[in-house]
Amino acid sequence: MEQIGVILLAGLTNGSVYGLVGLSISLIYGTNRVINFAQGEFVMLGVMSAILFMVTLHLPTWAAIGAILIVAILAALVLELGVYQPLMRRGAAPLTIMIGTLAAAIIASGIALLIWGPLQLAVPNVFSLQALNLGPLVTNAQQLAIIGVFAGLLLVTWYLMYRTPFGLCIRATGVNARVASLMGIRADRVVRFGFIFSALVSGIVGILIGPLLGGQVGMGVTLTVKGFMAAILGGLGSPFAAAAGGVMIAVVEALVAGYGSSLYAEPIIFSLILAMLFFRPYGLLGDFEAGRR
Amino acid sequence: MNAFKQQPGAAAGEVMLDIKGATMRFGGLVAVNDVSLQVCKGQVYGLLGPNGAGKSTLFNLVTGVLVPTAGQIGFARQDVSTLALHRRSALGMARTFQIVRVFHGMSVLDNVLMGFHHTLIDGLLPSMFMAGRVLRRERQLREEGMALLAFVGLAARAEDRVEHLPHGQLRLLEIARALASGPTLLLLDEPAAGLNDLETRNLGQLLRKLNSEGLSIVLVEHNIDFMMGLCHRLAVLDHGSKIAEGTPQQIQVDENVIEAYLGRRASHA
Amino acid sequence: MKNANTVRSMLGGPALILLIGALVPLLLTSGFHLRLVSIICIYTILCTGFNLLYGYAGQISMGQQGFFALGAYGFTLLMATAGWSFSAALPAALVICAVVALLIGIPLLRLRSHYLAMATLCFGLVFAGVASRWIEFTGGTAGMMVPSLKFAGHIVSRTELYYALLLLMVLVLLLQNFIVSTHMGRALMSLRGDETAAQSLGVNVTAWKLRIFVLSAVLAGLAGIASALVSRQVNPSFSEFPILVSILTIAVVGGLGTRYGALLGACVVVIAPQGLTAFGESETVIYGVCLLLFLMFMPHGLSGLFPTLFRRLRRKAVAPAIGAAQAGEAKP
Fold first, then answer.
1. Which of B2, B59, B7 is nearest to B32 (CA)?
2. CB under 8 Å to A173, separation ≥6 — which residues?
């Protein structure tokens, strides 16, 4: 009984991370039909700049967090202005733009490699890592903070999308970008918002998971892939379905690792997703895309 | 103008396309409501109707882009209501699109050759085993494709990329591509849309020529004069239902039609 | 006349490549250089499959490195562990690649192609994870040694292996040329455009996507086997991210949707770093920058540099054809 609690808590923690990356990918996809391959690199930049600002430069925690978020915004702008916009202007297909974001991911991790080297680095924690007894469960403040931030960011995203006029623009662009721009919606602003918001989310994820995973310059790809798996499992069409998909993946992963062997976790999840796609091509929770071509 | 109607072959003949009670619902909206009609061999059959009358939906049911909610689409003596899109060209059905759909990045000739696809060896391995036959056939295809391009008047542009063709020529290219598949029934979705008067007249002549060689044609079109001059029979749709069917003369005096569609025009005339 | 041209253009390139390739070992002095040209052949086979899939058919797979490794591991396990003969292990490993590609492709190819991209990438990563952790079966991160080939008691030398690879590469290029210059190539190119139009012309879109995906997986597996034989080992790095980066860079730099882009790109990507050893760690950054710059400014890659020359040659060949066609047009 205690074991399952620990496993589920671990699943929920990882699920929050996967879910937030999935949410970010789905959010950008919703505004411009492009899969952002550099999403995990935003997390990596968050983790690595935490090391830069907190360890190397000894900034106070809150200043460091601010600086990390500024780095995330700058990275998002570089991606949007340096990769997305130029390719769009040349009329590139979404897949070509996706390869462009992959190139950006390669460049980002390559530069990070030159700065931080290939080794796994310890990342200072914002919240305490001290063991915390929560009834029968043993956890720590950092883990709880991740889950809390996940819930908080879901709420913020929901509020932005469904309770603000700008959210209406985002959703309209997601349904049909051309019609939306005919109705006077500035699609370019929506796209830019998508990049910046998702980079911020990923930066926050980076601050939180750094202490748990450690900082390694190659961590971005794995996170991108996990985020995308979350998005296709839940449904690429909706950020919330993608977030739910992330939790599902992480829970299955934790259960397989806890009761079987971690060797089987990834193959099992991959097979599950393939089987699911066969029966529900647009994700477990998503069918709003199905009718569209 | 209506010289074709007098042709004996056009009046009666074997039924090629047999639509029985076709219905298409999108949620609560009934786009096509219990429409039945028959197109006979050698006919030019027109579908008329105001915008949103369900012509394009009916057209999509016939061509297989949509599967009817109820009813049957019979073609070549079989029920094709649920037949996969890619199996229809082998039965002798060929179509053009309302908004021209050609394959970019390919030459004009290659686009026409796409029409022959269903007659060729399907699959990679079978083609490899019969490489010699594939290559010989390829040579014949090029000649046949060039002949078709010459027929629609595009031979000089055979090696150009399709991106460089003006709209009118793309329409002709689509027709040549459809003809390449050796159809018995040619379905044209607003073929005169976006064409100028001269191009429209040429298109009419081209279609008459094809029809005189025995090809049956179904047309969806807005241009009434074009339709009246070309079609042997017309059906008029309004709000998804068929409100009239007959020869152009019958349609022109049909009260339902005048009320629903020709009304304003008739009073002006 | 036109067809004679098609056949000539199908055979001409590969024949020239075979000729040049056959002379290369005579000009090289060191075993290291022989290894480099062998790697060029391997990358060309690998990227020809990717080019058919993405460059021609517009379906992207980011899991080619997974099939590359699957071929290599399958072959090595069958030969070294199960004790099969070379002539049995080679086709069996390719069949494994084909079957796995089918299993992955069937659910994915009905969807938009970025599903294929990401899911195949997952496949590659999952494969790398399993290969490195299933130690008793795969040898873990250390991998496995591949025994050197023997035919009738004679050990195949590196030079002989290179000639075999060269022949294999030329055959693959011939196959590619055969595909792209016939109705198969047209069917593939129709996939990247309008699927409804392709279907209404009788192209079984799903089947063709699956066919080309399987073919590209088999070619990747073949390249993997070749790589295992050349490097005499397999390890999880076969399925890791840098291989994918190389594939994409080769395909984009050489020119997507061009016949000899894969070879051209492979030559550049294999040879260029040799002169630029000073780059060291910044190699990935340079790959990334090249990828991005080519995507933006040279979408047809290095092959795009030659079209003026090409067009001039083609115009000469086409001019009489147009004349004949116009004469034909006047007749009816």
1. B59
2. A30, A31, A180, A181, A185, A187, A190, A191
- B103-150 confidence digits (pLDDT tens): 988 889 999 999 898 888 888 888 888 888 888 888 889 999 999 999
- Please write the tens of the pLDDT for every residue from C22-62: 888 888 777 788 888 999 999 999 999 999 999 999 888 88
A103:C113 CB<8 A: no
Check residue B221 and give its pLDDT.
84
| A99·C103 Cβ contact <8 A | no
Q: Look up the pTM and report it.
A: 0.87
Q: How far is CA C111 from CA A53, A134, C105, in A?
A: 43, 44, 10
Instruction: Tell me whether A266 touches chain C (CB under 8 Å).
Output: yes
Beta-bridge partners for B75:
B17, B78
CA B91 to centroid of chain Cα atoms = 14
ipTM score: 0.85
Indicate if the pLDDT at residue C94 is higher than 70.
yes
Q: Which of C1, C54, C183, C209 to mutate to test binding with chain B, by most B CBs within 10 Å of its CB?
A: C183
Average pLDDT value for residue range A283-293: 53
The Cα–Cα gap between B65 and B57 comes to 9
Distance from CA of C290 to the nearest CA of A (A): 9
Inter-chain contact B87–C7, Cβ cutoff 8 Å? no
- Distance (Å, rounded) from C-alpha B138 to C-alpha C17? 25
Higher pLDDT, A196 or B265: A196
Closest alpha carbon within chain C to A102: C288
Q: What is the 3-state secondary structure (H, E, C) of A244-268?
A: HHHHHHHHHHHHHHHHCCHHHHHHH
Q: Which of C48, C109, C181 is nearest to B127 (CA)?
A: C181
Query: Cβ of B159 and C321 within 8 Å?
Result: yes
HSE (CB half, 13 Å, CA atoms) of B33? 14
Nearest residue of chain C to residue A107 (CA atoms): C285
Q: Which residues contact B131 (CB under 8 A, 6 or more apart)?
A: C178
Within an 8 Å CB–CB cutoff, is residue A173 touching chain C? no
Q: Can you give the pLDDT at residue A156?
A: 92
Helix (H, G, I), strand (E, B) or coil at A130: coil
**pLDDT value, residue B11:** 46
pLDDT in tens, C258-279: 889 899 999 988 888 776 666 6
CB contact under 8 A, C197 and B147: no
Of residues A79 and C81, the one with the higher pLDDT is: A79
Cα C210 to Cα C66, C248, C322, distances in angstroms: 17, 21, 37
User: In terms of Cα–Cα distance, which of B128, A30, B35, A248 is closest to C171?
Assistant: B128
**Strand segments (E) across chain A:** 131-134, 137-140
Residue B173 contacts residue B108 (beta carbons within 8 Å): yes
Burial code (b: 16+ CB inside 10 Å, e: under 16) for B63-74 equals: bbbbebeebebb
- List, in order, residues 6 or more apart from C195 with CB less than 8 Å away: C205
Question: What ranges do the domains of chain C cover?
Answer: 2-326
Of B95, B103, B151, the CB nearest to C193: B103
Distances (CA, A) of A118 to A110, A112, A121: 10, 9, 9
Question: pLDDT for B49-90, tens place per residue?
Answer: 877 788 888 888 998 888 888 888 988 888 888 888 888 888
Sorted by where each starts, the structural domains of chain A and their CATH numbers stand as 2-279 (1.10.3470)
CA atoms within 13 A on the CB side of B5: 16
A83 CB within 8 Å of a chain C CB? yes
Domains of chain B: 1-92+185-269 (3.40.50.300), 104-182 (no CATH)
- 8 A C-beta contact, residue B18 and residue B46: no
Q: Which residues of B touch C256 (CB under 8 A)?
A: none
